[in-house]
Amino acid sequence: MKLGIKEGSASSASTGAGSIRTLIASRLGRGGGASFLINSVGMGLAMLLQIALARLLGVQDYGIYAFVTTVVTFMVFPAKLGFDTATVKLVSAYRVKGDWPLIKGLLRRSNQIGFTLSVLAALIGIAVVALMDWGRGGTGGSEAHAKTIAYIAGFAAIPLLTLATLRQSALQAMKDALFAQMPEKIIRPVLTIGFVAALGAAGVKLGAAMALLCFAIATAVTYVIGAIVLKKRIGPQTAAVKPNYETRGWLRLSSSLMINAGMYLILGQLNVLMMGFMRGETESGLFSAAVRLAVLVSFMLTAVNMTASPLVSEKYAKGDMAGLQRVCLRTGRIGFAFAAVVFAYFVVLGHWTLGLFGPEFTKAYPSLLILAFGQLFSAYCGQNGTVATMTGRQNALTKVLIAAAVVNAALNALLIPAMGMLGGALASTLSIIVWNSAAVLLVRRKPGVQTLAWAPSLSFARKRGNYS
User: Fold this and answer.
1) How far apart are CA 358 and CA 337, in angstroms?
2) Is residue 163's pLDDT more than 90?
3) Between the CA of residue 150 and those of 13, 63, 66, 445, what are the distances in Å?
4) Rounded distance, CA 39 to CA 408, Å?
5) CB of 88 within 8 A of CB of 167?
6) 88 neighbors 174 (Cβ within 8 angstroms)
7) What single string gives the DSSP state of each residue in 246-261?
8) Do 293 and 422 meet the contact criterion of CB atoms below 8 Å apart?
């Protein structure tokens, strides 16, 4: 009797698996295809922007530009207060229930909080650099004054960058991968390159300050475009709806997620920041080029993740663990296969690619290989962080990320002064290995999802019909 039940269940599961596989393939085909296209073009444009700036500005001014944008990135993340990730998680779940009042309330409240905090962060940053410039008086010279203007231009973009990220998350949760990414990944770099090139053609002396002013203007334009798209996308569902608010609950969740976001930021960008403080902005600029290139290794996983994040939340909300496993398996294997190809490219042609930025940048080639290996390992481990966040395991993930961030900071402080760029690359890669390994074990234990691209235990389980 028990055997008959198992056989019937297996048959039902097999039939259901086929329809679920078709649904997931269709959803990932549409959303993942759009994500891949936008991320591919966007990544290419971002690289073109960095190469053009490095060529036009020179090593020193490019180093200032790269360092300021890194500082701005660190200042944006507390202003978001974790609402970017919370929006993807909550809006996806609310859509399943058709709860548009809560969606409207969440989007409104997150923008109110984000705008307030980002303006405060921008004003504090501008005040600090202005006071430092005033304190130097005339001793700093025009070079120091130009650097101050560069920081002010970067800080001025913080509110718009914060709101743009929240808008992007809302569209991502609505499964609109195309318009979620296009303004920031396509339009903004095109405008920035266009503005800088136009100024150069007009005979304006280019420097880090001028490049950051162009970046700030491009950010303003793309924010307006993105806001219009979001209004058209959700307007019909929310126009006549009175918003509901669960601000305390949202803040508890977003604050926890903000910690995770901060840890991700530390793991990904702290080495560039500490390189600038310890070894100077010029070496930080060289290292930044290697970091930006290394990210290309795992960018496919990031692209597909734009579609997979709301799917993970949706499958978990419905209790569809088999569907959740298939989403992770498909996206993980696609991401790792692409990562392996890009890693091989950098092994063979990484030195030449760095040379596109300028001859001085080839010094970062050994660091590029180490960083690229770290990204390859991350791609192999799959979407462990996304699964943990979208299935309520964010608190456990926070502990993992905090431990890894502490290791990262300690290794950076120890290795950068002695080894420079090579030390920063080693610190980053070792930290990636630590936290990804721990996160894989975390989500394997609960909710019981295997995120590795390939694993013997998963292959065995598939033969038994659990995940196929």
Assistant:
1) 30
2) yes
3) 59, 12, 11, 48
4) 28
5) no
6) no
7) -HHHHHHHHHHHHHHH
8) no
